[in-house]
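Deliverable D4.2, example record:
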Amino acid sequence: MPDEFFARLVADDVKNRVTAQQRKELMLEENWDRWKRGLLSLLDNLEDQIENIQIDAQADAVRYEGMGRAGKRLADEAARAYDMRETKVQRFRLHVERRLSQVESMLKTGQPIDENPWETVEFYRRAIIMHRNMLNDYDLEDTAIDRALWATLDNRWDFDRVDPLSL
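Output generated by the structure prediction step:
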């Protein structure tokens, strides 16, 4: 399989957009090291994206600074847009790092990762409950994002209702 296609496969795997056959291909032991290299390359690319977003945000802030009140409004809008882009890249980076950890574990142990979806579902359910309990225990204020996360325990998807401008 050509390197470019394999790199795309690695990124799609992190996004959970691979077919069962493609997943089998990744899980072949002879591909584990290549998989790791693909994830490391993807992490480098994401770091570059984050750095470029931050550079662009700073440049826009300086550019709009001298434009008075209209510039302030433009600067605020641009800052929000850059923050949302960076957050999206950072979130994806966390998923890449998680997968990298799994692949590194496979390489160390010689055993494929356990892909039992029910164990994963139960793990995340417990994590969401713990998140809610910790916010209550430490008397922290919940946000719309927290409430949307908790709604998933009731099979409701409330993330679409979260207004980024009200955060």
